[in-house]
User: Fold this.
Amino acid sequence: MPGAICLIIPALNEAEAIGITLNELPWELLRECIVVDNGSSDATAEVASRNGARVLYEPKRGYGQACWSGVLAVPQNCEFIAFLDGDGSDIASDLRTLAAPVLRGEADFAIGSRLRGARESTSMLPSQVFAGRFVGFLLDLRYRFRYTDMGPMRIIRRDRLLALGMKEMTYGWNIEMQIRAIQKGLRIQEFPTGHRRRAGGVSKVSGSLPASIQAAVRIIWVLLRTGIF
Assistant:
């Protein structure tokens, strides 16, 4: 089913990497790509527009906020929504693997696992690896379903996403989606995906100790709020 997916890429000061990301996309699968500029002070929007994306401006900061603004901008008749990061660390061609079972109607939600795939040295911090495994362990205890990662690359049916009742507008967006998908009984598949060091800029999660701590606190908050304990 070519051209069926609307892809959302949240971006904040990713001018060095967003062009690389867009040029690697499997465009034959996409109806459109929406880059949500979350208040960049560089040329992220201009580079994204030059490389084929529709740019949406969302000045209210927050990873989840940018993702949700993108969701609201997706055309009503677009049945599938995908997400990935704009820093060049995701191997964009892996979206083909994730999309296949969802487009065939065999899954509602597919997510890429950087921990199961081939990842470049130092592309993930030890704390990120630990967090993915630990959260997966907790969810397995609670729901008997194990994710191995909280990676950004994912695709979900639009109607299923809107039914999740997403509330987390910061760093906990990804894990809230994963938890809600289990709770709602979605058909979930996880696939190994490649991962490499970002192509430019500074990570908003792992680029500094305060940012890493803030992200960890938000993830813990989401785990508590979604009732897994």
Summary: Strands lie at 5-11, 30-37, 54-57, 80-83, 109-113, 154-157, 188-192. The longest strand covers residues 30-37. The radius of gyration is 16 Å.
